[in-house]
């Protein structure tokens, strides 16, 4: 492998790209200290992955980037690229570091890893840590390296690293194998423990399945019998239910027409209700859309205002750029004219100077024929004259500079005054705008404050409306519930719901003389309703009739209709007189009163309560009743307010009791009627409140819209004002920046004027001294011939004219250079301004389009908002009409339902009978279903079921119980244990096989590690012997009669043993390396490197001033080694030694120009040939 080319750009001092072609042989790189030679060494090390800042002579990673200079800006990235040739193929490796801290490696142009590159050069001795790169001062450090570090270099030369990698990889695998073996042993122990537990569970589960099979066989017969018996009974009950159902169906046909009519009316009512709900939902939807559109309108207005403000800012900025662009273009044209004029003047002066120089040379040649004495004098005069001329040129140049700078200062001061005046005018405009902005902000603040107050009030109103609507809805629901209860109760009273069929038959037959049921003829106070309900019991359903004939007629009717039985109270047969009472009883503790005195009868039937209650007493509690019964020995029934009853014979009937509402229905109906009136009034009041609040909401929303319109106008004006203000501030800042730059330039010019004036003074002083010496020389040469004097006078005159021409020419060139630089800056600025102006134009076009689109969207939103508000008003009117139609339909529905209830009572008795049959049917169905489920569980078939005799049925039942007892005796059983045991046993065998495989891998890897160590020892021993022989040879060559050796540390395995260097110099005892001089250390280091080279030559060697500490004799021997071994490898040598330079095949000069390292190649063979030809 050969190193053919190195390219560097942006790395350390190499601010500009350099390319170094590496020829075979010796490549010498020379240059003064600080020119960047060692940076080439750092670049190669960095390329091969060196990361230590100390080795790269840096404080931080970013120091690899070129830091910039006066003429070249700082590098954004550093690149080092090396090209190698390997068997005719190119290998290119490249490393790139960017300013953001990212590194990138490229291998033949493709992204790669450092590891990939290291693998290519592995074993070649090439890399950041190997012996192929020796930095400045490191040649002696190489010798001072630790024995372990020296050992690493020898291992690299021996190529042992591949064995180490294989061994480490094998060791890693071996550790994994050992770890996996430990894990497998742990797992196998756990599995064995699990298998022992599962074995017992599996056996118990198998026994359980045997018992389960025996039970299943017997259950098929057992539940088959149950299925057969209950199926027959169910069939009979179904037949009875069908007969009853047929009768009910016949009766229901009569109700069909009423149901159809009622259904149609209800559907109509529901449609009206749904329509009303839809109106409300649609109204809410419209209101939500109105709010959304209003918010969208606000957002669009705000966006449009911002875009208009941006448009104004960009327009103002564009005008400023345009003005600046015009100024720069005018100045650029002016500079071009000046430069063209100076170019013509330069050409003219150069031609004149050339003519004068030719004439002067001719005169000088003629003067050379004068006498030696005069020649010496003239030589001195010429020398002084040249010095004087140089001083004159320097003084004239300084004078011209002062003149030019003073002229520039006058221009600069005029510009400063002009820009300060413009800044004062802008400041006045800015103060006016700030005053207007302050007023606008105050107005905006007041309007925003009012808007916030309105928003708070709107939220409060919305919340109040919501609460009122919730209250209205709740109250309306309550009203509907009360009305429903009222209607139901009213229908029940009219239809005598809760009474027996016989009672309803008599009442609906409208027999003359039938008065009413007892419950309807009594008016019972609320607090004693429970007590009266208990006293009356079933007598509440007794029917009061005028006489016994009426009662007889009723009985005959019931007998004929078969409706059942009823109890009648003929008023001509019962005792209606008021019973006699004991007045002392009333005053007893806890007595409320006699029942007949507390309960009132309907008008005309006042004596009925006397018959119904007699001397029955009502007391507060059961305790009061007991005390009263014992103390007074009453023969009356006594009942407490909570319904506990003591009979006339002293028995107590009590406990919890459900009170019947038959006696309180009319009172409840009256209470509900009153509640309906009060609730309706409350709903009306809430609606009135909602209307008032909604009107207030509309008013504040109108006010908000007016304020928002005003705000929009104020915001637009304010944004325009701020845009103007920002533009003015930008202009003011730009002016201030320009003034600061001009002031800075002014100070720079003043400094340069002082420096040039100082130069003028020094030059004039030096010229006076030269003139004095020239005067003395001229006096001594007065004896010169007239012709010589004349010639000298002509030459002096010619010299003066040449000096004048040179001064003018230098002045022209300097002015041309200044104008050229200024023109370049202006041209660059014109390009920047043109680009910025184009960008602003593009942004303005986009902004105009966006503004037009926003205005269209805003108009669309306003149009939609107006449309939504119109739709809301129309929807509100339609809702009113629909509500009126719904109330009329509800009235008709009430009439139909009343008729429907009257007809429906006729089928109640049939349903009661059917209900009893249904209960019986459910029982049989349950038994049948249970039997089917049990049969399905045990795999039986209901179709194959048969009846059994009683003895067989009982035997089966006993056997099933016995097997179930045995199953319970087994305890909890896990049936999955059978399969789980089989799977666990299978897994145990598989893991055992894995264990055997791992044990085989362990033995194989151990053998591989041993073989690898043996091969590495052999390779290292052979290499060590070769390097040691080479080292002895090199030491004897470099140190006459010296000796040296390399050896492993005794008592250690050579794979682990460090390597020590032993050197004995001629005439000296064996000494430690650190005791040697710098030159001796360098020679030992060179010997060691060349010893390694002879074993495993690297593609290249870089030696940075390795010869710095060598004397001439040692240097010559070092050169001899370079010449001999450069046939095998390329040597890149940084040196200051001329002897090394002369032997180089290629010489590169490194020089620093304007802070940038520059490479100048010199082909030594060509140089030598040209030198010989010369």
What features would you describe in this structure?
- Belongs to the SMC family.
- It comes from Mesoaciditoga lauensis.
- Required for chromosome condensation and partitioning.
- The chain is an alpha/beta fold.
- Among the domains are: 1-132 and 1102-1173, Rossmann fold; 135-204 and 971-1097, Helix Hairpins, CATH 1.10.287; 495-672, Alpha-Beta Plaits.
- Helices cover 70% and strands 10% of the residues.
- It contains 23 helices and 24 strands.
- It has a 6-stranded antiparallel sheet with strand order 2-1-4-5-6-7. The chain has a 6-stranded mixed sheet with strand order 8-21-22-3-23-24. Strands 13-15-16-17-18 form a 5-stranded mixed sheet, with helices on both faces.
- Strand 6 and strand 7 (110-112) form a beta hairpin.
- Helix 5 crosses helix 18 (950-970) and helix 20 runs parallel beside helix 21.
- The longest helix has 207 residues, at 161-367.
- It starts with a strand and ends with a helix.
Mean pLDDT: 78
**Fraction of helical residues:** over 70%
- Runs in which pLDDT lies below 50 for 5 or more consecutive residues are 1166-1174
Rg from Cα: 62 Å
* SS-based class: alpha/beta
CATH topology call of the domain at 1-132 and 1102-1173: Rossmann fold
> What is the CATH C level class of the domain at 1-132 and 1102-1173, in words?
Alpha Beta
Question: What amount of the residues lies in strands?
Answer: 5-15%
Can you count the beta strands?
A: 24
Biggest sheet record:
6 strands, antiparallel
Shape: elongated
**Spatial strand sequence of the major β-sheet:** 2-1-4-5-6-7
CATH superfamily placement of the domain at 1-132 and 1102-1173: P-loop containing nucleotide triphosphate hydrolases
Regarding quaternary structure, how should these chains be classified? Answer: single chain
CATH architecture of the domain at 1-132 and 1102-1173: 3-Layer(aba) Sandwich
End-to-end gap:
39 Å
Provide a count of the helices. Answer: 23
């Amino acid at each position: 492998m050969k190193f053919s080319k190195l390219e560097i750009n942006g790395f350390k001092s190499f601010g500009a790209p350099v390319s170094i072609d590496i020829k075979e042989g010796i490549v010498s790189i020379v240059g003064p200290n600080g020119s960047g030679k060692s940076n080439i060494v750092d670049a190669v090390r960095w390329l091969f992955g060196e990361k230590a800042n100390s080795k790269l002579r840096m404080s931080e990673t970013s120091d690899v980037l070129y830091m910039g200079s006066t003429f070249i800006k700082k590098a954004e990235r550093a690149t080092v690229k090396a090209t190698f040739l390997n068997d005719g193929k190119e290998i290119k490796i490249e490393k790139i570091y960017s300013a953001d801290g990212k590194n990138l490696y490229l291998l033949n142009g493709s992204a790669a890893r450092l590891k990939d590159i290291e693998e290519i050069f592995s074993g070649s001795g090439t890399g950041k840590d190997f012996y192929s790169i020796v930095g400045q001062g490191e040649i002696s450090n190489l010798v001072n390296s630790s024995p372990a570090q020296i050992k690493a270099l020898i291992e690299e030369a021996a190529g042992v690293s591949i064995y180490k990698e294989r061994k480490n990889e094998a060791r890693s695998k071996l550790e994994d194998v050992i770890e996996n073996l430990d894990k497998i042993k742990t797992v196998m122990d756990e599995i064995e423990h699990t298998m022992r537990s599962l074995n017992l569970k599996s056996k118990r589960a198998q026994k359980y399945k045997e018992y389960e099979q025996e039970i299943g066989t017997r259950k098929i017969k057992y539940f088959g019998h149950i299925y057969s018996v209950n199926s027959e009974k169910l069939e009979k009950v179904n037949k009875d239910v069908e007969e009853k159902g047929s009768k009910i169906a016949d009766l229901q046909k009569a109700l069909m027409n009423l149901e159809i009519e009622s259904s149609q009316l209800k559907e109509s009512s529901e449609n009206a209700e749904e329509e009303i709900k839809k109106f409300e939902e649609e109204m809410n939807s419209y209101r939500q859309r109105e709010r959304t559109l209003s918010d969208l309108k606000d957002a669009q207005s705000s966006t449009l205002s911002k875009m208009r403000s941006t448009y104004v800012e960009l327009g103002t900025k564009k005008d400023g750029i345009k003005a600046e662009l015009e100024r720069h273009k005018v100045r650029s044209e002016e500079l071009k004219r000046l430069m063209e004029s100076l170019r013509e003047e330069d050409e003219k002066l150069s031609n004149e100077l050339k003519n004068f120089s030719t004439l002067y040379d001719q005169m000088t040649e003629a003067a050379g024929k004068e006498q030696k004495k005069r020649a010496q004098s003239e030589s001195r005069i010429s020398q002084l004259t040249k010095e004087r001329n140089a001083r004159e040129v320097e003084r004239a140049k300084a004078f011209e500079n002062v003149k030019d700078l003073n002229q520039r200062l006058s221009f600069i001061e005029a510009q400063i005054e002009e820009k300060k005046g413009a800044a004062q005018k802008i400041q006045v405009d800015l103060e006016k705008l700030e005053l207007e902005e302050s007023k606008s902000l105050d107005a905006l603040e007041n309007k925003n404050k009012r808007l916030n107050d309105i928003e708070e009030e709107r939220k409060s109103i919305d919340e109040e409306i919501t609460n009122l609507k919730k209250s209205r809805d709740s109250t309306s629901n309550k009203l509907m519930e009360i009305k429903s209860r009222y209607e139901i109760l009213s229908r029940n009273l009219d239809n005598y719901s809760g009474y027996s069929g016989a009672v309803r038959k008599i009442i609906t037959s409208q027999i003359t003389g039938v008065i009413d049921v007892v419950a309807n003829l009594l008016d019972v106070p609320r607090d004693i309703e429970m007590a009266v309900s208990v006293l009356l019991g079933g007598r509440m359903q007794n029917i009061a009739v005028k006489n016994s004939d009426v009662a007889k007629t009723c009985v005959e009717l019931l007998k004929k209709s078969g409706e059942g039985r009823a109890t009648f109270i003929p008023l001509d047969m019962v005792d209606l007189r008021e019973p006699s009472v004991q007045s002392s009883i009333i005053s007893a503790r806890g007595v409320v009163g006699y029942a007949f005195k507390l309960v009132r009868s309907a008008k005309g039937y006042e004596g009925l309560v006397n018959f119904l209650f007699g001397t029955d007493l009502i007391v507060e509690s059961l305790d009061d009743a007991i005390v009263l019964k014992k103390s007074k020995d009453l023969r009356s029934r006594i009942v407490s307010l909570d319904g506990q009853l003591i009979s006339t014979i002293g028995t107590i009937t009590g406990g919890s009791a459900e009170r019947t509402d038959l006696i309180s229905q009319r009172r409840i109906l009256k209470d509900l009627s009153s509640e309906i009136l009060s609730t309706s009034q409350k709903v009306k009041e809430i609606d009135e409140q909602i209307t008032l609040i909604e009107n207030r909401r509309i008013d504040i929303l109108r006010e908000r819209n007016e304020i928002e319109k005003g705000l929009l106008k104020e915001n637009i004006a304010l944004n325009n004002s701020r845009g103007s203000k920002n533009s003015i501030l930008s202009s003011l800042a730009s002016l201030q920046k320009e003034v600061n730059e001009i002031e800075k330039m002014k100070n720079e010019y003043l400094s340069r004027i002082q420096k040039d004036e100082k130069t003028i003074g020094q030059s004039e002083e030096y010229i006076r001294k030269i003139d004095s010496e020239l005067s003395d020389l001229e006096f001594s040469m007065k004896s010169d011939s007239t012709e010589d004097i004349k010639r000298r006078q002509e030459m002096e005159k010619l010299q003066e004219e040449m000096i004048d021409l040179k001064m003018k020419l230098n002045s022209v060139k300097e002015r041309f250079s200044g104008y050229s630089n200024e023109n370049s800056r202006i041209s660059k600025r014109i390009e920047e301004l043109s680009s910025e102006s184009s960008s602003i134009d593009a942004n303005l076009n986009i902004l105009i389009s966006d503004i037009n689109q926003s205005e269209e969207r805003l108009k669309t939103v306003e149009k939609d908002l107006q449309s939504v508000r119109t739709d809301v008003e129309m929807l509100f009117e339609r809702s009113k009409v629909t509500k009126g139609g719904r109330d009329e339909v509800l009235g008709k529905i009430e009439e139909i339902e009343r008729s429907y209830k009257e007809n429906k009572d006729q089928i109640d008795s049939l349903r009661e009978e059917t209900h009893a049959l249904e209960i019986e049917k459910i029982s049989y169905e349950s038994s049948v279903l249970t039997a089917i489920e049990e049969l399905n569980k045990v795999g039986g078939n209901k179709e194959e079921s048969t009846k059994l005799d009683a003895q067989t049925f009982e035997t089966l039942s006993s056997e099933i119980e016995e097997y179930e007892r045995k199953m319970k005796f087994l305890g909890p059983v896990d049936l999955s244990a059978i399969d789980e045991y089989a799977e666990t046993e299978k897994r145990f065998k598989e893991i055992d096989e894995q264990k055997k495989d791992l044990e085989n891998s362990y033995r194989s890897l151990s053998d591989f590690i041993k073989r690898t160590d043996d091969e590495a020892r052999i390779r290292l021993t052979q290499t060590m012997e070769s390097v040691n022989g080479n080292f002895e040879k090199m030491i004897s060559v470099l140190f006459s009669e010296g000796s040296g050796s390399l050896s492993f540390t005794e008592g250690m395995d050579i794979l682990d043993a460090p390597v020590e260097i032993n050197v004995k110099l001629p005439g000296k005892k064996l000494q430690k390396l650190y005791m040697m001089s710098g030159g001796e250390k360098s020679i030992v280091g060179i010997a060691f490197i060349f010893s390694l080279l002879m074993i495993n030559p690297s593609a290249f060697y870089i030696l940075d001033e390795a010869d710095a500490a060598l004397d001439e004799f040692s240097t010559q021997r070092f050169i001899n080694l370079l010449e001999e071994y450069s046939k095998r490898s390329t040597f890149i040598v940084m040196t200051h030694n001329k002897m090394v330079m002369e032997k180089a095949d290629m010489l590169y000069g490194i020089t620093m120009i304007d802070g940038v390292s520059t490479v100048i190649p010199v082909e030594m063979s060509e140089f030598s040939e040209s030198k010989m030809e010369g």
